[in-house]
Amino acid sequence: MTSAADQGPVQLRAQLETLTTEAFRPELAEIDRLETLEIARIMNGEDATVPTAVAAQLPRIAAAIDDIAARMARGGRLIYAGAGTAGRLGVLDASECPPTFNTRPGQVLGVLAGGPEAMVVSAEGAEDSKELAAEDLDRLGVGEHDAVVGVSASGRTPYAVGAVGHARSRGALTVGLSCNAGSALAAAAHHGIEIVVGPELVTGSTRLKSGTAQKLVLNMISTITMIRLGKTFGNLMVDVRASNEKLRARSRRIVSLATGAPEERIESALAATDGETKNAILTILGEVDAPTAEKLLGEAGGHLRAALEAARAR
Known about the structure:
This protein is α/β, with parallel strands linked by helices and 314 residues long. The chain has 14 helices and five strands. It has helices spanning 9-16, 36-47, 50-55, 58-73, 84-101, 130-140, 158-169, 184-188, 209-228, 245-259, 263-272, 277-285, 290-299, 304-312; strands spanning 78-82, 108-112, 147-151, 173-178, 191-194. Strand 4, helix 8 and strand 5 form a beta-alpha-beta unit. Helix 5 (84-101) packs parallel to helix 9 (209-228) and helix 11 (263-272) packs across helix 12. It is globular, with a radius of gyration of 22 Å.
C-alpha cells in the first residue's frame, strides 16, 4: 500500500511548503491577540474573496458539467471521491440530491476515504492510499458511463489522485477539483478545476476558504447537471421528493407557482399523479390526464418543458 510517508518526512515537508493552501501568513501571526469581532471581520473578508476565485474557473466548471450531464443522460452516475473535509463535502452534496432532485438510489454518490464512519470520526490516514481508492471504486463497478470527481484542497492527496487515475483507466469521465495551481489531481483528470483561494487564515486549515470554494463548485456541479437533466422547470424543483409534510407543502407550492391553478385543481392533480409534482404540472398546463402525462414525460426523458410542448402539439 503506497503511503505519503514513504516519500520521507523531509521530501513531504518540502512538497507541502510549495502549496499555496499551506502557506504561512506572518501578518496573521498574532491574530489570537485580537478582539473576537476583529478576527471575525478578517475571516469574513477572507471568505469574500472565494467567489472571485471560483469565477475565474467558470469556463472549466461549465465544460465539466456538460460532460457529466451527457454521461448521466445515458444512465451513468456522478461519483465524488475524496478524503477528510474534501471527501465529506462530496458525501454531503451527494446526499442532498435524492430529496432535492428525486435522483434514483446510487445515481449520485460520495466515496470517502475510510468509509462512512470517517464522516464523524477522523480517518485521515486513509487519504494516503491510491490502492484504497481503486478498491472503493471497483466495489461500485465504475465504468465508461460514469463521471468521477476527485476532490482535494491540496491537489496531491493520494486517495483523490488515485481515484481519478483509476476511474480514467476504467473509461469513466474524470474531474479533478483542487485549490492549488499545477496540481497532480488536475493533471490526472479530463477536466482540471483549480480554485486558487490563497493561504488560509489558520495555516493549512483547508476546511476554511478551500472548503468554501469546493462547496460552491460542488453546488454548481450537482445543481446545473440536474437542470441539464430536466430535474427543474425554470427555477422550480419539479422533481422534489415529497417524503414529509414540509416537502408535501413545498410540492403543492411548486405546482401553484408553475401553473397558477386554484388549490382544488392542484390537490386533484397531485392525487391523480400519486404526488408527482412534475406530472401534476403537466396535467394542468398540458390539459392531459395522468397516464398521458406519464407517457409524455417518459418520451421526453423526464424534461417537463419538452413534454409540455408535446402535449400542446397534440
